[in-house]
Amino acid sequence: MLRxxxxxxYYGGIHALKxxxxxxxxxxxxxxxxxxxxxxxxxxxxxVGLVRPRSGAVYFLGTELxxxxxxxxxxxGIAVSPEGRRIFGNLTVTENLEMGAYNQTSAExxxxxxxxxxxxPRLSERRTQMAGTLSGGEQQMLAFGxxxxxxxxxxxxxxxxxxxxxxxxxxxxxxxxxxxSEGATILLIEQNAVAALSIAHYGYVLETxxxxxxxxxxxLLKDERVRKAYLGAKSLPGRVAQADLDGTSFWVPSRTQRKxxxxxxxxxxxxxxxxxxxxxxxxxxxxxxxxxxxxxxxSIFDGKCAVFRSKDGEGREIDLAKPEADGPVKHVRxxxx
Length: 337
Hints:
This protein is α+β, with helices and mostly antiparallel strands. It has 2 domains: 2-230, 3-Layer(aba) Sandwich (Rossmann fold); 233-335, no CATH class. The chain has 10 helices and 18 strands. The strands form 5 sheets. Strands 6-7-8-3-9-10 form a 6-stranded mixed β-sheet, with helices on both faces. Strands 2-1-4-5 form a 4-stranded antiparallel β-sheet, with helices on one face. Strands 11-18-17 form a 3-stranded antiparallel β-sheet, with no helix packed on it. The radius of gyration is 22 Å and the shape is globular.
């Protein structure tokens, strides 16, 4: 249905896409994953005509999209749910959904509205509510629902999990699976490698503008290179002190040479020093916004004791398993509270 061939994109002297190719078959969920700056959003923008490649082409049902305007591409039957939601806050939920039904008759609009509200019951409960008063997760549902209102042949979802609490991510991705089970074709652009590959029929891993891995979603989840890049090590050096475990912190036997900030504000956290600590061993700690699948940042510690503390924001937490007292810190996909 959708085919991108050997895309090369430059921003000034920066080579943003380096021969990227991918295919989205009809009725499939295909995911492009990668960290910030990997090229996912650029590939998305090329597909919808917002960025022109220097070379390469994108085809949809045999029609080349590369030289078409964005509105011409949309008219071919492609719908977009952009990063950042872009809902109309001063309109009601129903009015926002109506904006997506630009190609529907009155009867078709009513049918599409009933269908979308059946997928997102929360939106049905808030039909007359101003969209700007919805929660972040509800706004994401609204943006997704608005894209569905045109009954598109292909849906492009750009970072649907960004900024959402884990439970809301699960709800949104369940809706994606439901839409796909009804025949929708979906291209999913995501940093959350775990969530994306868990539902994708096929995935592409982008790094620094190039596809470095591809394969069925389930197989990529098991790939050691993907696990290392996006799931982190199985454990971190250091042990939790029972008296200090408050549900959002753990110790490592080191002290930081500098304050460390995470790579994504969706999981706000910082690394601070704590004394005393008897260990004289140095560690290399990699911090990661795990559920978003973001890039590692390395920090070197040189022998005291540090505590890593998550600042809970709207229910979002660093994804770590709650260990037993004085047990090892596990780097897994469950959030402790």
